[in-house]
Amino acid sequence: MFKFVIVTCLSFFLLAAGSVLAAAERPNFVIIMADDLGAAELGCYGNRRHHTPELDQLAADGMRFRTCYSTPLCSPTRIMIMTGRYAFRTGWFNFYGRVNSPKKGSPAEDIGEHEITFGDILKSAGYATGIAGKWQLPGTPENRIRDCGFDEHCMWLWLHDLADGTKHSGGFERPGKPDRFWHPGVMLDGKYRPTTPEEYGPDIYTDFVIDFIRKHKDRPFCVYFPMCLTHNPWDPTPDLKHPGKKTPRGLKYNVEYMDHLVGRIVKELDMLGLRENTFVLFTGDNGTKGAGKGKVTEMGARVPLIVSQPGAIPAGVVSDELVDLTDVLPTIADWAGAPLPSDRVIDGQSLGKTLRGEPGEHRPWIFSYLSDQQMLRDKRWLLEGNGQFYDCGDSRNGRGYKNVTKSSDPEVRAARQRFAEIVKDLPGPENYPNLIRRK
C-alpha cells in the first residue's frame, strides 16, 4: 500500500504537470545486464580471445564507458540498478540469506512494497514494461515482479515459484534448483511453462524480449533483460556454425553466444524501424567468475557499460566519465522526461548530459561494496575493500596501478583524507541491526 500511494501520486503528477514527453516522442528502453561478466571479457574492452562483434558494433554506434562499477555480487547489484540507491538505503549489502543481507520479514526484504524501480517510474509514465531472464531476489512472482513495475515477465524459476500442485518437469542444476540453460525451469507471466531437453533457456528469454518489442512497437515500452549468461558452469551453447549441435563447454562460448543474443535484439529493433527511438543499455552485474566475482576489488566491480541510440547519442565515443549502476535509474527517468520520486534519496546521477555530448564532469567518484567492505574510486585514486590504496594514473583496466597504501607522500595523504571524508557519509551494515542479518 505504501508504494502504491507514492506511485499513484507520481502518475498523477506526470499527467497534471505534463512533464512526460508526448507518446510519439518518448524513447523506448532496452536495458540488458549480463550475468557474471567483467568488462575485460569483451572485444571492445580489449579482449582478444572472445569474438563479440555485436557488442563491439553497439559500442561503435554509441558510447562506451571505460569505468563502470556494479557491486561484486548478484543480488546487491540487482537492487542497485533497479532503485538507483546504495545498500545503506535499501539494506542490500550482500547476497540474500548471507551475513549482512536483509533479515527475513524485514522491510528491506520486501522490495516490491518499499522500493521504487525504474519499472515503476516508466509504468507510471504510461510505458509498457516487461522483464526476462534472472531475478535472484526474494518473493513470489505475484509480489516481486509486478510490484516492482514489470507487467509481463519470462523468468528462470526456482521451485518456490511454482503454484501448489505444479511440478518442474525439466532439468536441474543441482537438487532443488531447476536448470537455467538446457531444459530450463521457466515462469511465463506467473504460469509454469514446460520445456524440452532441446530448449535453451537464454533463447527462450530472448524470444520473449523480441516478442514483447513486437507486441508493443506502437507505444513506448521498456524491457529489462537480466540475462542468465554468462554464469557458470559455462555449459555448452547452441553452435551457431553447426545448427542442431552444441559447442564445447567454456566461458568463451558463453560470452560469444551472449553477444549473439544481444545482436538478435538490436537487429529486431532495426527491422521494426525502432532503433533510432530506442535507448539500448548493456552492462553486467559483477566481475567474471574466477576473475574478480565476489571480491571487493576493481576486478570484482568493473563491468562493461555501453549505451546507444543513433541520432541521440554520439557514435564511437569512449568516455572517461565515472559511472556506477545507481546512475541507471535517474538516467532512464531523465531520458524519458519523467521526474524522480520525491520521497526518497536517489544516489545515482543522470548520465543525460554526458550522453548528449554536453561538457562537464558526470560525477567525481563512484562507490561499490559487499557485506562490510567498501570500495571508492575517482579518476586517479582507488580504495579497495581490503584497505589497499592505489594511484591509477590515467589507467582504467588495472594495468600500471601503483600500490601507495603505505606511502607518506603528501599528495597520497591528501587523497586518502579526501576519501575518508567521503566514506564517512556512506555507512556500512553495522548501522542497521533491525534490518540486517548479523550472523
What does this structure look like?
By secondary structure, this protein is α/β, with parallel strands linked by helices. It has one domain: Alkaline Phosphatase, subunit A (3-Layer(aba) Sandwich), CATH 3.40.720. It contains 13 helices and 17 strands. Strands 8-7-4-3-9-1-10-11-2-12 form a 10-stranded mixed sheet, with helices on both faces. A 5-stranded antiparallel sheet has the order 13-14-15-16-17, with helices on one face. The radius of gyration is 21 Å and the shape is globular. It starts with a helix and ends in a 16-residue tail after the last helix. About 2% of the residues have low confidence.
Helix and strand arrangement:
Elements: H1 2-17, E1 28-34, H2 53-60, E2 63-69, H3 74-83, H4 87-90, H5 111-114, H6 118-124, E3 128-133, H7 141-144, E4 152-156, E5 172-174, E6 177-178, E7 186-188, E8 191-193, H8 201-215, E9 221-226, H9 251-271, E10 278-284, H10 298-301, E11 305-308, E12 317-324, H11 328-336, H12 352-355, E13 366-370, E14 373-377, E15 381-383, E16 389-391, E17 402-403, H13 410-423
In percent terms, what proportion of residues is strand? 15-25%
Low-confidence stretches: 12-20
Give average pLDDT, whole number: 93
The strand order across the widest sheet is 8-7-4-3-9-1-10-11-2-12
The CATH architecture would be: 3-Layer(aba) Sandwich
Order of helices and strands: HEHEHHHHEHEEEEEHEHEHEEHHEEEEEH
Report the helical percentage. 25-40%
